[in-house]
Amino acid sequence: MSSILIRNAMLIATFDDESRIERNADLYIEGQEIKAIGPQLQVKADEIIDASRMIVLPGLINTHHHLFQTLTRNIPRVQNATLFEWLTTLYPIWQELTPEAVYWSALAGMGELLLTGCTTTTDHLYIFPRGTSAELLDETIRAARDIGMRFYPTRGSMCRGKSQGGLPPDDIVQQPDEIIRDSERLIQTYHDSKRFSMCQIALSPCSPFSVDEGVLREIAQLARQHGVRLHTHIAETRDEETYCQQVYGKRPLAFLESVGWLGSDVWLAHAIHLDDGELSQLAQTQTGVAHCPVSNMRLASGVARVPRMLELDVPVGLAIDGSASNDSSDMLGEVRQCLLVHRLSSGVGAMSAEQALRLATRGGARLFGRDDIGSLELGKAGDCILIDLNQIGFAGALHDPLAAVVFCGSSHIVHTAIVNGEIVVRSGRLTGVDEQSIVEKVNSLGGEMVRRATRRTGIDVLKHR
Ligand SMILES: [Zn+2]
Fold first, then answer.
1. From ligand 1's centre to the CA of 181, what distance in Å?
2. CA separation, residue 357 to residues 60, 62, 277, 293, 453 (Å)
3. How many angstroms is it from 298 CA to the middle of ligand 1?
4. Residue 416 pairs with which residues in a beta bridge?
5. Dist CA 167 CA 187 (whole Å)
6. How many angstroms separate the Cα of 36 from the Cα of each of 30, 49, 51, 266, 352?
7. What is the pLDDT of residue 134?
8. How far does residue 250's CA lie from ligand 1's centre (Å)?
9. Rounded to whole angstroms, what are the CA distances from 275 to 115, 235, 252, 258, 292?
């Protein structure tokens, strides 16, 4: 069994229930598990990391993402678009998705996440184009194994194409029975509910404007039968609210409630346009929220009322959202933006650096129903990140090293990332994969998808609208 000793860390922020901080302390990981934390541990280890210039944090947890969108970041035609315009322009490009493109884009998204401090991510894959293999989520799971990331893939789905009054083109939606069959296959093949699990599946119909009521009900039933979680987008824009009122005669959250989609086994991305009663309903049902501040600012969707949610004890985690609506997968950057946007909208006391980091650690673990990740404590998984504070971006900021990683720093690349007791980022580089090949592959596959879509639709997405 391999072991790692992090020696003499400037500071270890445990994010345990007492927010315990250790200074000039060691952290020892044996196998998958944290075995000791304290000053001058008398243990031998296979690998010793001198952390005297570093802060140690639990690995960050990303609770919403669309890794395939790494292929279509920064498309000129939708740089200034609203969500619905953005979606309808990008759907035809995503229609060109192949298993190879899914694999490489997942590696790129996960690589960027690991480099910026995230050790557990989810993915919400909801594009299953006709004419290509439907076993696409399998490719993201293969990527997570290759790069060494803890993974919570969710099987997305869309069944209401344009001809049925939905938003997506018919060529990227599936029949309800195909969705149910593949969801069941994925749970049986990959879902591991054991402690320290590296892969757990959830089911995630895309949104109220792309899935039928019946499918939502059936998927909820299937998830509960297998003990897996449920995830979807809700209350992201006013357009969605109008759609739900027109089609279902209900506001988005009331619609979800009507199909059995509120509860502690459900977490929802965005949850922006909710009134006081709806926030209380989330708290009462312990339905979780994946908060995506950068995407929400990027698409001008609005500001989720996270400080109020925290007062009410709504479970909240932090999230990147898709690479194409962020347009990065910079997890430490997301923590900083989270703090800033809530201060701007609710006042300077609305969120502290420690609270923003807590959303990205314990908050994420709570949404995934996991007590083995999200904090540095004995018996928890060996998931942690080391940030080198001996950099010009932190000069003059060491009065409070923990807050420094949110308020300061000109690069969010961590020095080391450890997942399940394995070093996956060493000296700011990914260890398990070749970063340059990922960059080249994603550039070439993404470029090819755009060219094929342009030939098919005649719309040049490389021109600004
Ligand atoms: Zn999303």
1. 23
2. 8, 12, 27, 14, 40
3. 13
4. 386, 426
5. 28
6. 9, 15, 16, 34, 28
7. 86
8. 22
9. 37, 11, 11, 18, 18
Q: How confident is the model at residue 465 (pLDDT cuts 50, 70, 90)?
A: confident
Tokens for 333, please give them: 């950057």
Please calculate the CA angle 204-150-132 and round it to the nearest 5 degrees.
Answer: 50
How many A from CA of 6 to the centre of ligand 1? 36
Which residue shows structure tokens 């005669």? 249
Does the bond joining 327 to the residue before it have cis omega, within 30 degrees of 0? yes
pLDDT-derived band at 53 (thresholds 50, 70, 90) equals very high
Q: Hey, how many other C-beta atoms are within 10 angstroms of the C-beta on 302?
A: 16
Cβ atoms of residues 33 and 380 within 8 Å:
yes
Copy the structure tokens of residue 141. 């799971």
Determine the Cα–Cα distance for residues 389 and 366; give it in Å rounded to an integer: 29
CA of 266 to the centre of ligand 1 (A): 15
Q: Which residues neighbour ligand 1 (ion) by CB within 5 Å?
A: 321
The domains of the chain are located at: 60-367
Q: How far does residue 65's CA lie from ligand 1's centre (Å)?
A: 6
CB atoms within 10 A of CB 276: 10
Mean pLDDT on 185-200: 98
Alpha carbon of 282 to ligand 1 centroid (Å): 19
Expressed in angstroms and rounded, the spacing between residue 334 Cα and the centre of ligand 1 is: 15
**Cα-Cα-Cα-Cα dihedral of 132, 134, 138, 139, to 10°?**
20
Check: CB of residue 173 under 8 Å from CB of residue 205. no
- Whole-number Å distance, alpha carbon 44 to ligand 1 midpoint, is 44
pLDDT tens per residue, range 362-417 = 999 999 999 999 999 999 999 999 999 999 999 999 999 999 999 999 999 999 99
Mean pLDDT on 6-20? 98
| Beta pairing partners, 229 | 202
- CATH homologous superfamily, domain 60-367: Metal-dependent hydrolases (3.20.20.140)
Residues in the chain: 465
124 CA to centre of ligand 1 in angstroms? 7
